[in-house]
Amino acid sequence: xxxxxxxxxxxxxxxxxxxxxxxxxxxxxxxxxxxxxxxxxxxxxxxxxxxxxxxxxxxxxxxxxxxxxxxxxxxxxxxxxxxxxxxxxxxxxxxxxxxxxxxxxxxxxxxxxxxxxxxxxxxxxxxxxxxxxxxxxxxxxxxxxxxxxxxxxxxxxxxxxxxxxxxxxxxxxxxxxxxxxxxxxxxxxxxxxxxxxxxxxxxxxxxxxxxxxxxxxxxxxxxxxxxxxxxxxxxxxxxxxxxxxxxxxxxxxxxxxxxxxxxxxxxxxxxxxxxxxxxxxxxxxxxxxxxxxxxxxxxxxxxxxxxxxxxxxxxxxxxxxxxxxxxxxxxxxxxxxxxxxxxxxxxxxxx
Amino acid sequence: xxxxxxxxxxxxxxxxxxxxxxxxxxxxxxxxxxxxxxxxxxxxxxxxxxxxxxxxxxxxxxxxxxxxxxxxxxxxxxxxxxxxxxxxxxxxxxxxxxxxxxxxxxxxxxxxxxxxxxxxxxxxxxxxxxxxxxxxxxxxxxxxxxxxxxxxxxxxxxxxxxxxxxxxxxxxxxxxxxxxxxxxxxxxxxxxxxxxxxxxxxxxxxxxxxxxxxxxxxxxxxxxxxxxxxxxxxxxxxxxxxxxxxxxxxxxxxxxxxx
Lengths: 351, 259
Hints:
With about 350 residues, chain A is mostly helical. Chain A is built from 13 helices and no strands.
């Protein structure tokens, strides 16, 4: 053993360092909060938000100094980093929970079977009553048509990029997919408006809206499918080729099923992304207060347009309906997502 | 029906890089031929040219002739898909298809190629192939369970069952035991000795004892030098190669006096 080590401090073992007592963190936390409140009361600075920030800063400073004195630099940095990670997590989750909670409370206030099935036909903005039935129909049809276009095209494009694309064409497509991810949604609406309404002279309709949504879905689907296909081990492709299976059947029967769970998730994320889009719908379909089951003809309502319309009406009854519409929209997206997860789990590789 | 394979002056390239040069070799039918040699000398590359798997890698190509019972598999109009149905392959890492059950894995070669098969025929193929791979007794009660749930050695035998289910003439094995424990290795080696009754087998191995145990013929590959293409140093019956090799390099490698 080492007999010539440098003389160390009078500690029983070099393996045991200084440690803060167990009660350190809660005590420092409580005193930080107390200090922040005291400061807020005496100086009258800021509201609860400022108080929370002050409390967090006081906590960080006291804990760091104390830990540094007792435990040393490494532990102090560890505690600092841990605190930062937890507080940023809370900071990220607070608005999320707050939004969900608000929508839930305000939305449930107007929720009823009639609200889900009625339309706004002959309901004045000031009047109570009316419903989102016509908007649910519109959203389901438009998002459904958009998905029917974008999901197959997107998956096939991703298959091309991963399995076939070589050289310049693949790189160019890949680049434009990345660019498309950043397209403002209103540009997609403008494009369809220009091509469909001005160019072809067709009337605005739910179908035109669906095309605009499909454009927004494409890059998301292509990107996620591409990533999923890339992580399918090459071993599996080779195993299939070595059995004398042609390439396209290998892709269809081995590669796609292996990646299916991720592809379904990606498709659902893209549906979730466009279900709440408002801007492209403003340009491609007029709002209506009535049921319209035909996406090919005439104005068709949808949940985002409904919410926008009710909020701009500005009466207490209409704002209440807007919250109800928001709750319905979130619920629909959530149901989609849960269904997709269940489907994906069913198809996921076993073992 | 097993067939012989003959390589005539084969050069193998990855893009502009010449990986293997001037290989001429005859693989006898109903015999086990072992490819030995240091890492990176091109044994696996040569193996993969025998069923046209080499060209799956972008930019890779082959010059020279590979004859299967006298017919050039690189001839014009030859469909690599048909070549691979005739010459099966087992890989280094067991790679059962994760989305398929044990039975589906065995049938993968038949089903994925688009052939229709009656249920009783399919069951017969599954049992025959799994028996052929000495796996039937271990898995017959759980044929519908995922193949990835088996142990490594069982997975590798499942892959062998999958390869023989399409009834190839030649079976290529690329270090089939390198990921397996000694007991599983022994099981596979016994299996190879049984399979040679019906198939021509080529096996790449890093394990000299294994080459000695399972093979009838051994081919020793080596690099001519750093950055040089790999080449076939010599080939002959396994007992000749191991007891009195003609080349010094072979003797050095076999006796372990080699970097």
